[in-house]
Amino acid sequence: MIRWQTKELWKSVPQSVIDELDAKMGELQMPIAESREYQVRKFLH
């Protein structure tokens, strides 16, 4: 699971960085089986 503080930060990751990380994973890289976007709200008690 990967979490970002904001959706803007998530969307700002350049494709070149993603491609570089994928290449470094080599044989360990696995296909994404499922992807979801959701918001976690914090409630003050």
Put simply, the count of helices is 2
Proportion of residues in β-strands = under 5%
Sheet/helix structural class: mainly alpha
Helix content: 25-40%
Can you tell me about this structure?
This protein is mainly α and 45 residues long. The chain has helices at residues 7-11, 15-25. The longest helix is centred in the middle third of the chain and has 11 residues, at 15-25.
Short description:
The chain has helices at 7-11, 15-25.
Features:
single chain, 45 residues, mainly alpha, elongated
Secondary structure layout plus pairing:
Blueprint: H1 7-11, H2 15-25
